[in-house]
Design goal:
Blueprint: H1 28-49, H2 55-62, H3 71-82, H4 84-94, H5 96-115, H6 120-148, H7 153-184, H8 187-200, H9 204-207
Helix pairs in contact: 1-6, 1-7, 1-8, 3-6, 4-5, 4-6, 5-6, 5-8
């Protein structure tokens, strides 16, 4: 005859594992720091593409030779890419915050020069100086972003937001440049960058921590 067995009344199901702790939230100051650094990176990304649609109008207004018109873009791209590593190393040695602020100031002044340009030479000078400012902003801004937020969820979130905004800057620049050129003229595309700088630059000195890497081939100290 078959018999059945029952579990003792005291037997219970295993307890569910505890829920993982919620990631730390950004404080008000963290949000401001993130805004300053991401806005600067977004501004540089915007500058790479905002002028492309405006080139024919710009060329006619400033009387660019057709063969030289592409220099309106190249004059920015060459110094911004060529000096990127050099300025990153200078920031490591002498202070990333200091170089970041200098790059912002140069970028804003150069954007104003490009906005008010009266001939091809003055416009190209403004674009080249914009490129130098961007070469200082990008590496120091990314380094400041990693030192301003502790390793873990906060830093990952900050880097994710920064990367997303930079990607959007390249894409939005094409659309925004066309709209602004049609409604306000090509000079508004450069003026927008000057306005961006006026918003970011006054906030940065009091929010960003100084950061540098000690020099010396044998140094293994982390950035501080």
């Amino acid at each position: 005859m078959a018999t059945t067995t029952t579990k003792p009344a005291s037997a219970t199901a295993p307890a569910a594992p505890p829920a993982p702790p919620a990631p730390p939230a950004l404080t008000g100051r963290d949000r401001l720091v993130l805004f300053v650094l991401c806005a600067a990176q977004f501004m540089v990304a915007l500058d790479f593409s905002v002028l492309n649609v405006a080139l024919p109008v710009l060329g006619a207004d400033l009387r660019f030779d057709q063969s030289a018109l592409q220099w309106a873009v190249t004059a920015f791209a060459l110094p911004s890419g060529g000096f990127l590593l050099l300025f990153g190393r200078i920031g490591d040695l002498f202070g990333r915050k200091r170089l970041f602020l200098s790059g912002l100031a140069l970028f804003g002044a150069a954007s104003l020069l490009a906005t008010l340009a009266w001939n091809p030479a003055s416009f190209l000078a403004g674009r080249a100086l914009q490129g130098l400012g961007a070469a200082a902003i990008v590496p120091t801004g990314m380094a400041l972003l990693t030192t301003a937020f502790p390793e873990g969820p906060l830093r990952a979130r900050a880097l994710g937001i920064s990367g997303t905004l930079m990607s959007l800057g390249f894409t939005i620049g094409m659309v925004l440049g066309g709209v602004m050129t049609d409604t306000l003229g090509w000079r508004s595309t450069m003026g927008l960058l000057a306005v961006f700088t006026l918003i970011v630059l006054p906030l940065a000195p009091g929010l960003l921590p100084e950061s540098r890497t000690p020099s010396g081939p044998a140094s293994t100290c982390p950035a501080r």
